[in-house]
Automatic annotation (TrEMBL):
Protein name, per record: Efflux transporter periplasmic adaptor subunit
Lineage: Bacteria, Pseudomonadati, Pseudomonadota, Gammaproteobacteria, Vibrionales
A single Gene Ontology CC term: membrane
Coiled-coil segments on the chain, per record: 91-148
UniProtKB keywords: Coiled coil, Membrane, Transmembrane, Transmembrane helix
Similarity comment: Belongs to the membrane fusion protein (MFP) (TC 8.A.1) family.
TM segment ranges: none
GO molecular function, one term: transmembrane transporter activity
Annotated Multidrug resistance protein MdtA-like barrel-sandwich hybrid domain residues: 41-181
Domain of life: Bacteria
Keyword Transmembrane: yes
Amino acid sequence: MIKRYLITLLLFSAAGSVVYGYYQSYSSNPWTRDGQVSAYIVSITPRVTGQVTKVHIDDNSQVSKGDILFEIDPSLYQATYHKALASQKQALALLAKAKNEEQRALNLEKRTPGAIPVLTLNNLSNAVETSSANVQLAKANVEEAQLNLEYTKVYAPTNGYITNLSLREGSQVVANTPVVALIDEDSFWIEGYFKETDLVGVDVQDTAYVTLMMHNNVQLKGHIKSIGFGIAKQDGSTGNDLLPNVNPNFQWIRLAQRIPIKVTLDERPEDLQLRVGMTASIKIIK
């Protein structure tokens, strides 16, 4: 009988030691399964309005910085550019005419003082300044028209992946309205949410180990890039009749809030592709 109690006591002691060891490990090295792969999403936005004539990309394709993504019908912008060039030539001709008339009047006034009224000389000088300003305006219009013509070809601003593409030839795009989503392949990080009580003593640059649900046999090493400084409060927001929303809680239970942290991977296997939204587990080594 005593032997049975002794064995039971030893089993409970061993189990307690294991549980205590896990608790110590968890308290000193916080861990969460609430992690997710994130990256910056670049919204590709055309700068001019028009019909799409060519699409050079496919859905879920990889592009490099500077690759052409799609083209917009340039005919209207070519006409505007040629019109601006013509206006510039006209402004230059009027400036030359104004300068010739002013110079002629100045030469005559030099040979015969008083032959040209002062008011006329002033008007001729003003005409030259006005023509010069018109030339500058015409030059700016040419530059603007040339830019708009160049904007009919849309290029990738960074390396990345095209996702959820619905753009097709013949589609009408509007200036400053996003039409293509590009995931920046050089910006991936892992975002995790830890209880505030688990982050005591955790600092930026602490080592972190990440395990992806899709690749649970691979452990990725990284470091903490940043720790969030705030989260949105749930109580106190305005509800119906301009009254505050207050959620009921239990006085004997105090739930710890979760704080977001960002983990940057130190290195990544070449055959492992990160995808935005993948589930991850994160363990921090203090």
